[in-house]
């Protein structure tokens, strides 16, 4: 029997029933990786010996009658998480030999839950791209079309899931890094509420793994079904035992509803700062029509929605102030000069990004206060609605583009070019206020590429968008495996090779 595309839930049931062993599942997953990953390049750090040993231990535990959430299930982990004895590089060439001595907290939780770790998945340099490529491990290709990106920065994890390399994966998200790869590869991902899942050990080398509360950034689950997302979130959620866990425990409220007909949903298909491509628009409307068909209350506009232009500007200010914290003094001073030369009336996203990179603490506090006003606005909106459905990015997966710097690239939206970074405004809708957002498949484009949407829910009510995702999966369908031998029809940018380097 072919097990590689079965859900984690199905695998757990089969393992408990004795229909398969963890060693058999692991060997089958490894065989598939060895057969198919030469063209996809999703698994950048395999650990097959360690996986087989863990699978053997899982089978022994199953024989003793143990029942842990992920016992015996093959999974992958984003390269940016520390795993003791394996390299953590974040794609940084000078860190290619950095090997941490301790597991990241989330890796420890996976192991405690009984998961079998197959290896680590590819990322972009410093996790700062909507594609996944770096000088150490090369380029990860989209399993649906090898000439296109799998997304970033959790692109290796999304590609691995779509290709049948493990049932689950864990990634991270600051600028859509869970949601965009899921959208591009046709799988599921969940960006948890900010702070719900601790990030210790998901840190750029050689920094020490500390229990830090990151601004904007989260870690979260990826899977091929909505129920598997919820299963993995339950493993990941809960405070760091070195910090908030000293005093707090987690008790997420249940989903607001159990039937599609009871949901109140706001549909947003347009952003004031960037157009929505026709393929993605069709995906949003496919979900909207399914909701209407089931009798849900569906609205297309609401005066309660916080101003999306201001939200995007705040997002860029906060995100870039964080990103620029590590740049050299010389570069920082040059950026200060450039920012001082901006016209005071320039409200473009480019200007917001530049201002963000040199934001003073005084200005950051003011931006953070405005963020709190937006959070209050979202609380008022979620008194009237249960979820918001909107795009993740304006387009399906685009052709590999490794030319020049990020600031010099463009994204083609139905034949018109827009600044590459502007597509992040959709990720920022949930990220800036720290809301949970679940990425789900919503069909395919006319070119046969996956199209996803995000379901945004109320803060700390992660189970609501997850339950909505599960109900929509039953209604419109979910993950479909790409056909083997995916084409490479799209044009490629420089450096977008199919082989490992």
Describe the structure.
The protein is an alpha+beta fold and 501 residues long. It folds into two domains: 8-242 and 257-301 and 385-476, Amidase signature (AS) enzymes (Alpha-Beta Complex), CATH 3.90.1300; 308-383, no CATH class. Helix content is 36%, strand content 15%. The protein has 14 helices and 17 strands. It has helices at residues 8-17, 22-40, 48-63, 105-112, 155-163, 179-185, 226-236, 278-293, 308-323, 329-340, 349-357, 361-384, 425-431, 463-476; strands at residues 43-46, 74-78, 116-121, 133-134, 138-139, 141-142, 145-149, 168-173, 188-191, 218-223, 264-267, 297-299, 387-390, 410-413, 416-419, 437-444, 450-456. The strands form four sheets. The protein has an eleven-stranded mixed β-sheet with strand order 1-3-2-8-10-9-16-17-13-11-12, sandwiched between helices. Strand 16 (437-444) and strand 17 (450-456) form a beta hairpin. Helix 5 (155-163) packs parallel to helix 6. The protein is globular and about 70 Å long. It starts with 7 loop residues before the first helix and ends in a 25-residue tail after the last helix. Mean pLDDT is 95; it is low at 490-501.
């Amino acid at each position: 029997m072919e097990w590689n595309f079965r859900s984690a839930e199905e695998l757990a049931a089969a393992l408990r029933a004795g229909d398969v062993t963890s060693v058999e599942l692991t060997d089958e997953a490894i065989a598939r990786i060895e057969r198919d990953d030469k063209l996809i390049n999703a698994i950048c750090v395999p650990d097959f010996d360690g996986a087989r040993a863990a699978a053997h231990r899982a089978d022994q535990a199953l024989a003793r009658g143990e029942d842990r959430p992920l016992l015996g299930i093959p999974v992958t982990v984003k390269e940016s998480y520390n795993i003791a004895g394996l390299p953590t590089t974040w794609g940084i060439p000078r860190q290619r030999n950095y090997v941490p001595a301790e597991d990241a907290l989330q890796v420890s939780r996976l192991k405690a839950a009984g998961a079998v770790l197959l290896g680590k998945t590819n990322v972009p340099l410093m996790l700062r791209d909507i594609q996944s490529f770096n000088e150490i491990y090369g380029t990860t290709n989209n399993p649906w079309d090898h000439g296109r990106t799998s997304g970033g920065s959790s692109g290796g994890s999304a590609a691995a899931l779509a290709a049948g390399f493990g049932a689950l994966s864990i990634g991270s998200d600051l600028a859509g890094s869970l949601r965009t790869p899921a959208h591009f590869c046709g799988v599921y991902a969940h960006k948890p509420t900010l702070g719900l899942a601790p990030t210790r050990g998901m840190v750029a080398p050689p920094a020490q793994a500390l229990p830090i509360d990151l601004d904007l950034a989260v870690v979260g689950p990826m899977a091929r079904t909505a129920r598997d997302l919820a299963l993995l979130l339950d493993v990941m959620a809960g405070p760091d035992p070195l910090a908030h866990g000293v005093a707090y425990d987690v008790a997420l409220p249940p989903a607001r509803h159990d039937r599609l007909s009871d949901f109140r949903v706001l549909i947003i298909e347009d952003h004031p700062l960037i157009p929505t491509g026709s393929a993605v628009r069709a995906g949003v409307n496919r979900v909207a029509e399914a909701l209407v068909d089931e009798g849900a209350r569906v609205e297309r506009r609401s005066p309660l929605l916080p101003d999306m232009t201001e939200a995007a500007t705040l997002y860029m200010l906060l995100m870039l102030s964080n990103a620029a914290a590590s740049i050299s003094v010389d570069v920082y001073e040059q950026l200060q000069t450039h920012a001082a030369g901006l016209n005071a009336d320039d409200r473009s996203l480019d200007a917001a990004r530049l201002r963000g990179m040199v934001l003073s603490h005084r200005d950051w506090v003011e931006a953070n206060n405005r963020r709190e006003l937006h959070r209050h606005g979202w609380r008022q909106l979620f008194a009237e609605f249960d979820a918001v459905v909107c795009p993740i990015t304006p387009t399906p997966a685009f052709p590999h583009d490794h030319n020049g710097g990020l600031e010099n690239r463009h994204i083609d939206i139905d034949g018109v070019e827009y600044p590459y970074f502007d597509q992040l405004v959709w990720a920022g809708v949930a990220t800036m206020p720290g809301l949970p957002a679940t990425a789900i498949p919503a069909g395919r484009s006319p070119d046969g590429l996956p199209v996803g949407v995000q379901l945004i829910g109320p803060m700390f009510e992660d189970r609501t968008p997850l339950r909505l995702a599960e109900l929509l999966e039953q209604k419109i369908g979910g993950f479909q495996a790409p056909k083997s031998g995916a084409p490479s029809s799209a044009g490629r940018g420089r450096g977008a090779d199919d082989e490992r380097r």
